[in-house]
Specification:
Layout (H helix, E strand, L loop, with lengths): L11 E6 L1 H9 L1 E2 L6 H14 L3 E2 L2 E2 L2 E6 L12 H7 L5 E5 L4 E4 L1 H6 L12 E5 L5 E7 L2 H7 L5 H17 L2 E6 L4 H12 L7 E6 L1 H17 L5 E9 L31 H14 L2 E6 L2 H17 L8 E5 L8 H6 L6 E5 L2 H13 L10 H10 L4 H4 E3 L10 H10 L19 H8 L12
Parallel strand pairs: 1-10, 2-5, 5-6, 10-11, 11-12, 12-13, 13-14, 14-15, 15-16
Antiparallel strand pairs: 3-4, 6-7, 7-9, 8-9
Helix pairs in contact: 1-6, 7-8, 9-10, 12-15, 15-16
The structure holds zinc ion.
Zinc ion binds next to loops.
Length: 455
């Protein structure tokens, strides 16, 4: 937490997160505040004592998260022998706070099929000792074998994760969230919670990727037919237009300073024609689109496609285009946010808190576009000059569990443009800073003001 003044943190909305994964992170053994290897091993021992050995004939894993070796006095991972001793006979996995590394004990390595003879996968490292024996530590893509080996959560576990996630979000002042990768199972669990009266007004709007879209829509159609005022809603389609900043796959208008060979401006996932095709479908079937677009190139491609479809349907596309992340927006595209769409419109759904973790990546990978990152001031001005309420055009979220859903972090980033305690000259695009009140306004839920869960 970076902003200790939490007055006014009520009726909040997180417009971009992943509910079940947030709950899964909460259900795991927490290592974030450990200060020594002994501390880490104590937590593992505690979990080992508390968990049943088997469930449905399979060993129950110890799943721990938040490990940060830099925060431990010894600045190292436990040794394999130490971890094995703390979790005898059952698989245990300790995940790094950033999910780019993990450590497995011997049973976990066995389950993942990792031994001395295993070759490092592309873009991954199996860390080994002097004689080539794995130490248990896996980096980057080498972690995937471990994720694949972990048992799939049972329906009871998911239900518990969902309850943990919603309790946690409520305690932080949220009354509404938007889930950005909904599954039919999530929809069913939420509807069951609502049937039991457990949601108690907590609003969840779901967006689903093309592979899950029809199945989620089916679950929701049936439920909503009976009661259109349910707090659980289906928003529409989630699309991934580009990749990410850190992997240099975001679709940028100008090349990265240190580009991927053969992909100097990142990697678009769709052609303009494909994007327009999805938008025509949204128009005909009356659902909204939430499109992941980190780079300014991806943002422009979406606005271009929206305007093509807008023209085709007589300036009334009939659906809302949410541009998720919009981490870089070219100056020329700003007025298009406020202008595009008449009744339904274009929305910028931002997570300014990512500026706090991405500062170094912005400076190193796109220094020439740093001034265009999270241009909150420009977006608010664009809304105002078009006579639109900024709170209807700009939504804030966290993308939890990538980061904690802590509104203080969005406020810190929006107001100071740098991490707490940093010198003012380190700020990224300080001219885009907005006031605390303005930032809080973009975090406010509209439930009860403009109808339930409306976006
Ligand atoms: Zn996300």
């Amino acid at each position: 937490m970076t902003d200790s003044d939490n007055t006014g943190w009520t009726e909040l909305r997180d417009a971009h997160l992943h509910l079940l994964n947030h709950g899964k992170a909460l259900a795991a053994v927490q290592l974030a505040d450990c200060t020594s290897v002994a501390d880490v091993l104590d937590r593992v021992r505690g979990a080992h004592a508390a968990l049943p050995e088997h469930r449905a004939g399979a060993p129950v894993w110890i799943d721990a998260r938040g490990l940060r070796t830099e925060g431990l006095a010894e600045r190292r991972y436990p040794t394999l022998a130490e971890l094995d001793e703390a979790s005898p006979g059952r698989p245990a996995v300790l995940k790094s706070f950033d999910y780019h590394a993990l450590m497995g004990n011997t049973p976990a390595l066995l389950e993942a099929g990792i031994e001395a003879s295993t070759v490092d996968p592309p873009a991954g490292v199996i860390v080994r000792d002097g004689s080539g024996v794995p130490t248990g530590v896996l980096l980057e893509s080498a972690c995937n074998a471990m994720y694949a080996a972990q048992p799939v959560d049972t329906s009871a576990q998911r239900s518990e994760q969902l309850r943990l996630a919603i309790d946690d979000l409520r305690s932080r002042g949220f009354v509404e969230v938007h889930d950005m990768k909904a599954t039919p199972e999530l929809a069913e669990l939420l509807l069951e919670m609502d049937d039991r009266g457990e949601l108690d007004g907590f609003g969840v709007t779901m967006y689903a990727v093309p592979d899950e879209f029809e199945r989620v829509q089916k679950v929701m159609r049936y439920a909503v037919r009976e009661d259109t005022n349910r707090p659980v809603r289906f928003g529409g389609l989630k699309l991934f237009i580009d990749g990410t900043l850190n992997s240099r796959t975001a679709w940028m208008l100008e090349p990265f300073a240190d580009p991927l060979p053969a992909h100097p401006t990142g990697i678009p996932n769709y052609t303009p024609e494909q994007i327009e095709m999805y938008m025509r479908r949204a128009h005909h079937e009356r659902f909204d689109i939430a499109a992941h677009a980190i780079g300014d190139g991806a943002v422009r491609a979406l606005l271009d496609a929206y305007e093509v479809v807008e023209k085709q349907f007589g300036e009334e596309p009939g659906f809302t285009l949410r541009i998720e992340h919009a981490q870089f927006i070219d100056e020329a595209d700003l007025p298009r946010f406020a202008r595009a769409g008449k009744k339904r419109a274009v929305i910028a759904s931002l997570q300014p808190c990512h500026l706090l973790t991405d500062m170094e990546a912005i400076e190193r990978l796109v220094p020439h576009r740093a001034a265009r990152s999270f241009p909150l001031k420009d977006l608010i001005d664009a809304a105002a000059s078009a006579g639109r309420d900024p709170a209807e055009m700009i939504l804030l979220g966290s993308d939890s569990p990538i980061v904690e859903p802590d509104p203080a972090d969005n406020i810190q980033a929006a107001v100071y443009r740098r991490r707490a305690g940093m010198d003012a000259e380190r700020a990224i695009a300080p001219e885009q800073a907005i006031t605390r009140e303005a930032a809080l306004g973009l975090h406010r839920s509209r439930i009860g003001r403009s109808g339930a869960c409306e976006v």
